[in-house]
Amino acid sequence: MENATITRPAVLILLGPPGAGKGTQARMLEESFGLVQLSTGDLLRAAVAAGTEAGQQAKAVMEAGGLVSDDIVLAILRDRMAEPDTGKGVILDGFPRTAGQAEALDGLLAQAGLSVTSVISMEVDDAAMIARVAGRYTCAGCGEGYHDEFKLPATAGVCDRCGGTAFKRRADDNAETAGARLTAYHAQTAPLIAYYEARGVLERIDAMSGIDTVASGLAAIVTRVSAQ
Ligand SMILES: [Zn+2]
């Protein structure tokens, strides 16, 4: 019975701090499940370019130097989710950011007979993340990436790829900045995590366990929730 496998479109939200591999995982989910990642920034730009009603409203607000309201973002999201390529489901990126927005999103989805199927929090070990980011540097000649702990050149001070001996570090790849980014992330997402946990749709996944392990964990969650 073919119909047995056709269920409602999945609405996934991936939460994770910078460096947790969210982008990579979202792309893998798009490929494996035919989901479409909807990033708020891209949606806004596309709606403005297409000149939809909501797009025109967004354009007017942005030109006046204002912040696009939740209502406009929701209208743009609603229009986008009505397009046929999102039939299998979507991964939302950049929205919601607050519990208020999450509540408004629930309202929008309910109108379409949908709901958030799963919110996946990609959990990281802060200290390990800071070490990962803080140790990064690149070859000044060819851009090859290295790491103080995890990936040193075979010969100290000589690039494996181009033989160059000059290396550089990004100013924001230091422990202090990485720590501040994580603190801001936790502060911003804590209310969202609480909101979705209370609704029984929160899943936690260990984002430190390697790209393939994380990918299979995510795939198992998506398979399970889309069969419900
Ligand atoms: Zn090099």
From TrEMBL:
The encoding gene: adk
Function as written in the Swiss-Prot or TrEMBL entry: Catalyzes the reversible transfer of the terminal phosphate group between ATP and AMP. Plays an important role in cellular energy homeostasis and in adenine nucleotide metabolism.
Location of the region described as NMP in the Swiss-Prot/TrEMBL record: 39-68
Reaction(s) catalysed (UniProt annotation): AMP + ATP = 2 ADP
Tagged with keyword Transferase: yes
Provenance organism: Gemmobacter megaterium
PANTHER family reported in the protein's UniProt record: NUCLEOTIDE KINASE
Class of enzymatic activity (EC top level): transferase
Pfam families with a match to the protein in the record: ADK, ADK_lid
Residues binding Zn(2+): C139, C142, C159, C162
Designated name of the protein: Adenylate kinase
Family matches, as NCBIfam families: adk, PRK00279.1-2, PRK00279.1-3, PRK14527.1
InterPro entries to which the protein is assigned, alphabetical: Adenyl_kin_sub (IPR006259), Adenylat/UMP-CMP_kin (IPR000850), Adenylat_kinase_CS (IPR033690), Adenylate_kinase_lid-dom (IPR007862), ADK_active_lid_dom_sf (IPR036193), P-loop_NTPase (IPR027417)
Subcellular location: Cytoplasm
Signal sequence interval, chain numbering: none
GO CC terms: cytoplasm
Family matches, as PROSITE patterns: ADENYLATE_KINASE
